[in-house]
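Please fill in the sequence for the structure shown.

STRUCTURE ENCODING:
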């Protein structure tokens, strides 16, 4: 049986993976990050993994919980419009 990623791409076909973190940052940056995720998916990218990130920070006597998702989007080749 083929080593197939859940999205239908064969693992051997993925030559570039873009990691995009959404959340845990300023609201405007989160919206920009989601726009980039959607653009990647429209360009035939496939989500191959989603990381769930949680951190707890103490500010004085207050604890702050920050949450974020990091999308790993695989491509057969790197799109020319994508930066690093």
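FILLED IN BY: designer on duty
SEQUENCE:
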């Amino acid at each position: 049986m083929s080593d197939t990623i859940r999205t239908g791409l064969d693992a051997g076909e993925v030559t570039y993976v873009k990691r995009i973190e959404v959340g845990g940052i300023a609201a405007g940056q989160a919206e920009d990050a989601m726009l980039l995720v959607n653009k990647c998916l429209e360009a035939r990218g496939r989500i191959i993994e989603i990381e769930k990130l949680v951190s707890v920070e103490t500010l004085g006597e207050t604890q702050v919980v920050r949450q974020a998702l990091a999308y790993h989007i695989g491509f057969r080749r790197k799109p020319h419009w994508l930066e690093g």
